[in-house]
Amino acid sequence: MNDSFGAGGFNPNSTTAQGAGNETKKDGILPVCIRQLLLVDDEVKMFDLSYSMVNLVAIVRKIDYTSTKITYTLEDHTGRIEAYYWLEDENSQQPKVTTNAYARVIGSLRNNAENKTIIIYHAEEVEKINDRTTHLLEVLFCRFKAEQFAKGGVLPRNGQSMTAALGGGSSSAGAPMETTDDIAPNGLSGKNLLILQVVKNYDGPDQDNGISRQEVYEKVPKIPKTEVDAILEYMMSEGFIYSTICADNFKSVE
């Protein structure tokens, strides 16, 4: 086996296993430890698969507030990194996390003056030790299964999270996944496509303002709210949907 785990983390610069195909751009959420993020060059990769979002569980060591953003210093057993949550205005909802407590952070990696940082899409406290242990198991599981795929297995389809593509029957929060096997012309599939269809096909009473975040939760009860939030943020950043009267109402651009 290609030993891409060094002391405490994944080495993204290791040689890809023989038989891997050309580099493939993928959209999805990859469970990681901090050291993996500190070692990457420009994007998060797992054996030639690139992922736009990461799922991290770490201790919140410090919180700094300004009028435009909240800065979190995150630490796990592999390293330390800063993460930013941007505020739209003074009334913006803030993540419910506290210092010296574990939190799950879903976001994307950014390079800032040669320092790696995370742009947070969603964050919440992790109270159960089982959730922390499950996250570490997912990190290991995805790493070793990705090598098997690189040696000739079927690669995850566009729009799938790594955990879903590798056969995980549940998310990191323990809820069963609810996905679709269809691949749309826009390249979305899995949970991304499912949530886009929920937004697009909304036929509720508030047609002008679109579906609310709470209604999306209710339409896909088997997908954890943290992952729904991350997918909504991703689809807004990619131009599939947009917010209307507030940050919690959405309409499809189509």
Could you characterize what this model shows?
Residues 158-245 form the Replication protein A C-terminal domain. Belongs to the replication factor A protein 2 family. It is found in: Nucleus. This protein is of the alpha+beta class and 254 residues long. It has helices spanning 34-39, 129-150, 162-165, 190-200, 213-219, 225-237; strands at 5-6, 9-10, 24-25, 29-32, 44-46, 49-51, 53-65, 69-76, 79-86, 102-112, 115-125, 211-212, 241-243, 249-252. It has two domains: 29-151, Nucleic acid-binding proteins (OB fold (Dihydrolipoamide Acetyltransferase, E2P), Beta Barrel); 190-252, Winged helix-like DNA-binding domain superfamily/Winged helix DNA-binding domain (Arc Repressor Mutant, subunit A), CATH 1.10.10. It has a five-stranded mixed barrel with strand order 7-8-9-11-10. The chain is globular and about 50 Å long.
